[in-house]
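Deliverable D4.2, example record:
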Amino acid sequence: MSTLATFFGDGSLGAPGALLLAGLLGLGFGFWLERAGFGSSRKLTAVFYFRDMAVIQVMFTAIVTAVLGLRALVVLGLADPAAIHHMETFLWPQAVGGLVFGVGFVTGGWCPGTALVGLASGKVDAGVFLLGAVAGSLAFAAAWPALEGFMSSGALGVATLPETLGVPPGVTALLLVLVA
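Output generated by the structure prediction step:
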């Protein structure tokens, strides 16, 4: 297997096996989200009212772990940063999308992943939230012809944090650790 290759990408795991593995990983991830209390919309929205910062702590821990792990793999020569896919940045549509997502999160009390956990835990409001997310996705798809021009506005190409800050990736990783 080459650097940063996936089992699916290098052909050692076909589509049925990849779907099964993804499903099992998703179930495991959902189980641990529920165990951490993230199957509760009250716990999730408490961060917006500065009452419970557990969600932020878990997210920062995950981000720092991923950044440090990737930096270690790069330093050890086990990962090639050029082999990692970077999405292009479209400033305005991504800003609006983040705003819509944030308003939906605060209003509904769920993000899509935690809503699935809540639904599996029997929370009816999570199911209603997911139906709203599906309806919103369908409305967005129907409105695509009118939005297509906007969706490419503010194009910045591939904009990574180290390049934007003008510092090496290792320094960016250290700054992230210090902020966390």
